[in-house]
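Example is below:
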Amino acid sequence: MNKAWKAIVLQEIKEQFPSEESFYERHLGMDGTSWIRWKKDESDLGNYGQEKIERLFTDYEKMLVDKVARNAEIIPDVQMNPVREYKQMKFQIASKWIQSGLGEATWISDEDDFREKEYRISLLRVENDYQFWSYKDRLEFRIKESRKKQLRWSKPELLEWFEEKISEQKEEATSAET
């Protein structure tokens, strides 16, 4: 697993779980020492652990992570901040799907009982349904409950939110360069 891939995985764990510790203990059944060794590339997670890591992402998101990780090997800007690149791509793609009418957005409440009450998040799921069997591409955005209340359901407001997020990612890139 290259550094970019791992950075995106660690960010995804941060967004989905109260802490890395809750992830590696409850989902991987690992102790802290083993987790640190994995983070330093001193050990691997085995098939079970790798499968759990991959479940952090939808199929479409895994494809994006792979593309960003590959680009990080050859493009210095991506290598400097693969997480920003990954997030920017997700917002950009979701925005295009919604704007073109191909994508549909839905709110899904997060009901995992191990999550701490103050860490409640909601899931904004944007899907592109190809109307063929069960083939859909899906992007998911985790939003803290307090922020969700500020968002509305209308398409223009959702597109505005995506554009705001894309701009934030670009501003981060600009400030990192200076």
Remarks:
- Residues 113-118 have pLDDT under 50 and may be disordered.
- DSSP finds nine helices and three strands in the chain.
